[in-house]
Design goal:
The chain has helices at residues 15-22, 26-34, 138-154, and strands at 2-11, 39-46, 54-59, 68-77, 82-90, 97-110, 113-124. It is an alpha+beta fold. A seven-stranded antiparallel sheet has the order 1-7-6-5-4-3-2. The protein starts with a strand and ends with a helix. This is Bet v I/Major latex protein domain-containing protein. InterPro entries: Bet_v_I/MLP, Plant_def-hormone_signal, START-like_dom_sf. Belongs to the BetVI family.
């Protein structure tokens, strides 16, 4: 079975500014520092932030979902401002998912505004259908909200 969930949040910064955070490894450093109640550790295990980079995400015990997994950067489009990662080891793959993809897309709205669209696409084996309840954009929504506050505080003066 295939599914998709999305979350959108308007940012009060230009799309290029938001992409500097979401389109690079900065987002990994950001979530590890700003979300210690969710992320115990975010480790770079392979690469430098380019296509093929692998991160290991370890969650604080008690967070719904798998305790950890590795994700790989499978798409980085700097022109369209889209970055996709897929779980490649552990985590959701051990829970019956055959695909668990997260996409961040920064959409230009105006000169000083943009939208961060977060999407999870997944495929799940029928005999693990109950695990579909583990799919949620809540953590992505939290990341977007914290990023919005951070970007607003740190935006370059006009």
């Amino acid at each position: 079975m295939f599914g998709k969930v999305e979350h959108e949040l308007e940012l009060e910064v230009a799309a290029n500014e938001a992409w500097k955070l979401f389109g690079t490894l900065e987002i990994a450093k950001f979530v590890e520092k700003e979300m210690p109640q969710i992320f115990q550790k975010v480790e770079l295990t392979e690469g430098d932030g380019a296509l093929g980079t692998v991160l290991k995400l370890t969650f604080v015990p008690g967070i719904p979902g798998p305790p950890s997994y590795k994700e790989k950067f499978t798409k980085i489009d700097n022109e369209k401002r889209i970055k996709e990662t897929e779980v490649v080891e552990g985590g959701y793959l051990e829970l019956g998912f055959t695909l668990f993809r997260v996409r961040f897309e920064v959409i230009e709205k105006g000169e000083d505004s943009s939208i961060i669209k977060s999407t999870i696409e997944y495929e799940l084996k029928e005999d693990h259908a109950a695990n579909e309840s583990l799919v949620s954009t809540q953590i992505l929504a939290n990341i977007a909200e914290l990023a919005k506050n951070y970007l607003n505080k740190n935006k370059a003066p006009k």
